[in-house]
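Reviewers asked in the last cycle whether our approach scales beyond single polypeptides. To address this, we selected a multi-component target totalling 1040 residues and predicted its structure end to end. The input consisted of the following lines:
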Amino acid sequence: MGSVQESPMPDLSHHLNAHSRARHESPLKAIIKYMAVDGMISVAGGLPHSSLFPFESVSLNSYPASAVLDAENPKVPGDLDTWTIAKHPTSEQPLNLATSLQYGDGRGEAGLLKWAREFTKLVFQPAYEDFDILVNSGNTDAWSKVVGLLCEAGDSIICEEYSYPSAQSNWIPLGCFAAPVKMDEDGMRADALEKTLADWGINHPDQRRPRLMYLVPVGSNPAGTTMRAQRRKDIYDICVKYDVIICEDDPYCFLQYGDYEVEATTTGGQPGTPEQFLSSLVPSFLKFDYQGRVIRLDTFSKTLAPGNRLGYFVANKLFTQKLLEATQVETQAPSGWSQAIVFGLLSKWGIMGYVQWLSSLRDQYRIRRDWMCDAIASKFDVKPASSLDIPGAEGLVALAKGTSTPIFSFVPPTGGMFIWTRFYLNTFPAFQKLRADESCKDPELACEDALWVDLCEAKVLLIPGYYYIPWEGPTKATTKSRGGEAGIGHFRLAFSMSSKEEMNEALSRMATVVDAFLKK
Amino acid sequence: MGSVQESPMPDLSHHLNAHSRARHESPLKAIIKYMAVDGMISVAGGLPHSSLFPFESVSLNSYPASAVLDAENPKVPGDLDTWTIAKHPTSEQPLNLATSLQYGDGRGEAGLLKWAREFTKLVFQPAYEDFDILVNSGNTDAWSKVVGLLCEAGDSIICEEYSYPSAQSNWIPLGCFAAPVKMDEDGMRADALEKTLADWGINHPDQRRPRLMYLVPVGSNPAGTTMRAQRRKDIYDICVKYDVIICEDDPYCFLQYGDYEVEATTTGGQPGTPEQFLSSLVPSFLKFDYQGRVIRLDTFSKTLAPGNRLGYFVANKLFTQKLLEATQVETQAPSGWSQAIVFGLLSKWGIMGYVQWLSSLRDQYRIRRDWMCDAIASKFDVKPASSLDIPGAEGLVALAKGTSTPIFSFVPPTGGMFIWTRFYLNTFPAFQKLRADESCKDPELACEDALWVDLCEAKVLLIPGYYYIPWEGPTKATTKSRGGEAGIGHFRLAFSMSSKEEMNEALSRMATVVDAFLKK
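The resulting structure, written as structure tokens, was:
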């Protein structure tokens, strides 16, 4: 695995849905190719005249790639880089506003595409040579286009047991369903996937076997799990066996941390080298993808800023060609400002400079991960699950302070922005009452919601776990029918944007609410 | 008309397609509303920390609203405005990068929405009070979302006899068809529309009557026509009668010129006041829209720059709510850079400053329109159609120099960026041969294509008319079945981006190609 495959790739065109197959290249875009002929005078395209763009130049003040960041004291690093993109640069410049602000190629800015190709080869080492890059307007846009590329009404999409709801909001109105697969601390379980697919026809006689998998393999949203290499290979091989396309939605790819140790918060310390950083990353599915069945979604939302609304697909040309045809009539191209400014920064930094930035960024979010875990440990009594006899508990268990009452367990995440807590609802008298109430079809969900409302009223906002339960259709609306665990609820805590003090205060409020809820 | 309507609006919800009706607000977006509670600590959203956005500030060098532009000599106006958007501004500023580059509200930047509302009220005077504004990523994105909002497979969409192909490329793969309506120099004909709808059941027994109209009412692409007020009112009333939704795609709205007079090229001259400019505009369909059945698409692509990928819907709340739900899972929001920079400029200019800019811009494109018409008149003998006896000819007729052989006619456009030429193919022996060839099903199209290839080889690129023939399905592929005019071809010439010299050279090459083609 990982070596470049020379054997012919399988034909995957049967995966395209009817809508994608019916698409054709825009005839107007085809004509634009003639514009490149030397000496051609074009009166073809309805392009505005760039002298009438009212922007003459834009100057950026940006951090250097080597900026020293400090989570405790977030402030502007001392020395900033200042650089300009002019409409008509006087010297040879890779970028100019006359081009960036004009109608552009739906594939993306040429320099950015080249950069993304080099970066992908260096960092992810795809298993086949002629993978393609296509720019998009961020991973929401990208996933929406993947659904538009492959899904037909009535399809089921493989996802994790708990999965990102906005991804599901894209396919549910199309009449598609989730096919959730059980997880462990490595993410989706390979044995559960194999079983789901092998038994599909028996369990779902009226539904086509799933042909698309949606995964957030690093820092899974919400579960916080990161899938290691062997699991990826196992999952990939099952997808080959059952002819499933894998969509690797990887916004948290570069936010991979080591293990968490209670009260041993990492500090900035000595940062590693960019090479050390790269070798610390779990491999992308691309590295195993000798058949071109992975569509990888990369984005700058978490690494530079979400407002860029800029990302790119890495996939085989069959898929990128059809995605491009969709792009031409749906979004046309990402913002020229975003493309120019992001590519300008990446050019300034160089690829290894960007890697250095990613390494520093990872350190910053690791510190925040540690703060949040520490905050839990300071407001609850935290013990290793292995030291307690609690069925299904993994990682650490948070007990009500000074008691032996388990409130929730969590696996300190080794990637991403989220801590996924597993609440032991049987502890709460309020839950026992709900369970005794025969009119309550999903007492787990009802209890979780009641606790969530109490938390909101105590002014701590987190996200209740039921938001992440994949929707399998109207017949799966009870705890049992949806395959939910009896007596278990969840909450998702994000550690990305609060300060250490806010995290401590949030956990303090949470502990108070839980104490009160125990008496309800 | 034009006064604000107080009677209740009709319920238009039956227009939503099944996909739109199945959409719901994203649950994650709903939770974000709680963030506004005072004192709330949120560990809910997975937002990156803004201290980790590597952009500290951006400075723009932009034209003042009063910039004096010169088409003959396009250059930077003397005095530029310099202004900055900082991540954390020291004083009270309407914009900051910490917010603009974060995940944002799918509706759009609040200031921009407010601006768009005020601008719409001032300029377009909608006939009902509670119209809504929703930002999008430009009119391609917007139209794609309107198709996604309303169309079902098998639907027919009313459009003009010649219509923008990229708009059609959006609906064709969905299994929708065009319902083209004959045009005159005012654009879509009201009598032809009425007949199309009245006779629909007879002519299309298997297809649902069209419920959506796509129109570019100013500077129609490709036909260059601009629809005057009375025609709009007539069209609107027919749409009320037959319950049709009107999508007013209006990128060229502010590029409305007076009539063209041969060899009387307008110069910069004394610009009019912003008020004069506004009163010179034909009314938008919004002004007649007492029922909320107009979805207006406004964009900054032609007025500021296409690379902004920024525009907005003006429509009733039923539609904008569903468009917002689509936005949340499809594109999320337009680029934060685009929103901040465009709104920054608009704030700096003020609404009347923007109107002043639009007035100057209009003058620039009017000069270019005149250049192109003059170039035609210098390379062909141009006579008023009224002075010649050519069936169907309107506007001006271009005769081969020094002959009485009519080559094409055209109506000098009073708006937009395009001249639509109507070629008299019977003039060409090559066409007679094609017509005599029984294997040639669409000799008009074949002749147009042959001439187009000759033009390309002579290094003048324009767009053949057949690109703009609406696709009505596979059974309408001959001149006759598609309702094409016998012996007529078309080419579209854009006058937006070439210099005067290039236009003259392009027309010179065209005249040479035509002379040679006459002898083929």
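DSSP finds 16 helices and 19 strands in chain A. We regard this as preliminary and will revisit it once experimental data from Aim 1 are available.
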